[in-house]
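Record type: ASSEMBLY
Status: queued
Input:
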Amino acid sequence: MELLKQKIRNEGMVLSETVLKVDSFLNHQIDPNLMNEVGQEFAHLFKNDGITKVLTIESSGIAPGLMAAFHLNVPVIFARKRKSLTLMNDLLTASVHSFTKQETTEISVSKQYIGKGDRILIIDDFLANGQAAFGLIDIVLATQAEVTGIGIVIEKAFQSGGQQLRDSGYRVESLARIKSLKNKQVQFIEETGAAVK
Ligand code: G4P
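Status: finished
Output:
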């Protein structure tokens, strides 16, 4: 998605060889026009898959998840990372280990909102080691619903999550795939296979 890549080139800050900061449009301040286009793109990619619900994880998955759900005209559910006052009973839970943060979080979704016949599109902002995506998959697999696809805004293709998910048979669509963050440069994997800055 060219607009997203331009935004990453213009506003992304390479903090290290593994971390890209995109606080100006995705992780802190959010660009609603960009999120609208992100949602449209996901809706276009999965339009023939009979998606019934979008599933994402708080907090940064909510904006792209909501816009994808809006354009697919289905509800969006976000997995919670913190205990909620109102979300207590009949929970589906999974453990998500972050290698980046070196911590394990229990994520939860109410059983009320995912069930038999649901075709779930998982959406998240970043794909690194895939732990969040596998946690969301575990939650869906604990129900009689199906994971129909996974949509990622920014995939760090030099980390193993994308490969692991695809090797497990899931369809993963990433709107920007980063090949490398070396030398403070963002190098994308182009659809043609050629790398540009
Ligand atoms: P994984 O789920 O693919 O295994 O990723 P990992 O544990 O490494 O990521 C932990 C958190 O850091 C996630 O957000 C993830 O989106 C984010 N993250 C990973 N790599 C990058 C990166 O290069 N840049 C940015 N900006 N974020 C990255 P989170 O803790 O759940 O935060 P939030 O959703 O509440 O914002």
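Annotation: The chain has six helices and eleven strands.
Annotation: Residues 19-22, 27, 59-61, 98-101, 125-132, 156, 161 surround guanosine-5',3'-tetraphosphate (CB under 6 Å).
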